[in-house]
Amino acid sequence: MKTETVAMILAGGQGSRLGKLTKQIAKPAVPFGGNYRIIDFALSNCANSGINDVGVVTQYQPLVLNDHVGNGSSWGLNRHNGGATILQPYSSVDGEKFFKGTAHAVFQNIDFIDQKNPDYVVILSGDHIYKMDYEKMLDYHKQQAASLTVGVMPVPWEDASRFGVMATDRTDRIIEFQEKPDNPKSNLASMGIYIFSWPRLKQYLVDNQSKNRQMEDFGHHVIPAYLRNSEAIYAYSFEGYWKDVGTLESLWSANMEFLDPDHDLNIRNRDWRVYSKSPNTTPQFLTSSAKVKDSMITDGCYVAGEINHSILSHNVKVGKNSVITDSFIMPNAVIGENVRIEKAIVGEGAHIYDDAELVGTEDDIAVAGYGEEIGGYSDEK
Q: Which Pfam families does the UniProt record give (predicted)?
């Protein structure tokens, strides 16, 4: 059966800049906003955009991510003709087992895409926070008769070297591209969202592989090859909220922004919902000593302390006389009594013992890693 569009979510990245938070889980599986994981946004965008065939390409520490995505049922993607499929590296004829880059990950999954026989492939990153209607971008791709359309938006000049940046002509055709340059010529950044006409992309990947040419990464290899061959590459401007949460500071600030009821992401909009796999847990419980101000407290939490402008994910425990301010606490963390946490991220399953402190600044966020213990007996080991 023919499918017009297949989405491939690249979710295999380690996210090394998140340090202790990604030592045991892939970056797209990192919790966000109390009820979500980062990959939920790309998956929800697919579901809301009417894209029902989704491949989720995993590699680094995939167990939590695989369990979270499952068959896509939490996003309404578990369909007879479609659905979400986990795609992991496998040993090929030439002995290759791991993906060498973004384009190589798609090359290794050509058979999966060809089973769907699509006209278009939407390539997505699994580690950005945003809402976007991919159908509108696909309509633009068709109108321009493009071989490739790149989702773009301007970023601060000081951040431009972290992205692929480009120059366009008056028709929004891309005429120059730099991948994470030391000295960027532009601040018009790629969002890591691509729409390819599949037959053309497949030809590039297969032909270059047969000729032992490098075609491993979209930014370093595929887009430059398209430019050299004068392919029709267009920029699609996105004007909504979009955030790359690839650093501790950006992850923290995105969560703090999330607390704003007037946040541009508009998480409460029922016409474009962000779905997730929800845990089956108890309701939250606030004791008589609890004080909560300007915060999100999700299901399963037990709070006996003071919470100010913070997010508590599910099943977090906070003891008496503890004060949490401007912080994001991930699921199943345990905070003891008389603890002070400020401008911090506490990882999943971390334990902050009685009388400990975890205090950072906006430029240097304090972090407790995945399952880390701070204070108490852990300091004596």
A: Hexapep_GlmU (PF24894), NTP_transferase (PF00483)
